[in-house]
Amino acid sequence: MKKEVKIGLAGIAALLVLFFGINYLKGINLFKPERYYYVDFTNINGLAPSSPVFANGLQVGIVHDIEYDYDHPGHVIVGVEMEQNMRIPKGSYAEIITEMLGTVKMNLVLNLESDTYYAERDTLEGRANAGIMDAAEKELLPKLAQILPKVDSVMASLNRLLADPALTNTLHNAEQLTSSLNATSRELNRMMRTDLPKLTSNVTALTDNLRTISENLKEVDYAATFSKVDSTLYNVKLLTEKLNRKDNSLGLLFNDPSFYNNLSTTAANAASLLQDLQEHPKRYVHFSLFGKKEKPREEGAK
User: Fold this and answer.
1) Which of 18, 61, 207, 267 could disulfide-link 82, Cβ–Cβ 3.0 to 4.6 Å?
2) How large is the C-alpha radius of gyration of the chain?
């Protein structure tokens, strides 16, 4: 073979490899039979050719081409290649989903209750699914716009609070309070280690004493004791009754004023006699060493 022919064949082979390689990278298998459908959308949200098409979470095809429907302005026709065995029931529709990272994919929502199927190259209804990003854009962003002024106000208030000297004093007081609590905790620990065992032993001793007293009280004959108390109270009652009567000395003493006055007079005379005896003992006792009697002193003698 001539050199030019070899170069031509090599070029043709390179073009074939390039063609099949590009289609392979796009997910198009030229040697696998496929079904072709159309989907009518009003907004494709950035859907691109070779984007995957899913059904129940499994990829069943790819987007082959996208064309604007000039006959029906506002509509976009998307050509979709499906696997040969993939049959779409009537009433199904396709939706475009925008994911978190901004990637766009097509998802088939199949009407599994239908027994009839779309024919190849039929047109399906296309819908736009809000997705997370669209919902965030429509719902979250307006709320954020309302919250941001409040956040600015809160931050300004927080800055004023942090700049207030009272906060520093409060933190200082809190530090002192924490130190006091630590000291109190250490003191409590010391008391738990030293004083509490002594207190516990004293309480134990007191409990033992109370137990002993209780056991002793169990042995007391309460019936006999109360009987003796009743007898004593009865005797006291009899004594009180006798003291209130005048048929006895104690009764007369407590109840007869003349008897009391006589006793008082007698006591006064006895006291006067004893005093006179102390002052003039010679009037009552005569004693002489030689037996001579002293003449009685005349009345009025000094």
Assistant:
1) 61
2) 64
Element (H, E) at 41: strand 34-41
Angle between the 165-193 and 195-219 helix axes, to the nearest 10 degrees? 50
Q: What angle do CA 288, 293, 298 make, to 5 degrees?
A: 125
Please state, as a whole number, how many other Cβ atoms lie within 10 Å of the Cβ of residue 105: 18
Query: Are residues 242 and 255 in contact, defined by beta-carbon separation less than 8 angstroms?
Result: no
Q: How far apart are CA 22 and CA 65, in angstroms?
A: 15
- State pLDDT tens for residues 140-186: 777 777 888 888 888 888 888 778 787 778 888 888 888 888 888 88
238-263, pLDDT tens digit by residue? 778 776 776 766 666 666 677 667 77
Compute how many other C-beta atoms are within 10 angstroms of the C-beta atom of residue 66. Answer: 16
**Can you name the residues that pair with 128 across neighbouring β-strands?**
96
HSE on the CB side for 163, CA within 13 Å?
A: 6
Query: Nearest CA to 86 among 60, 47, 52?
Result: 60
Say what the pTM is. Answer: 0.39
126 vs 221: CA distance, rounded Å: 106
**Dihedral sign from CA coordinates of 264, 266, 271, 276:** positive
d(CA 131, CA 256): 121
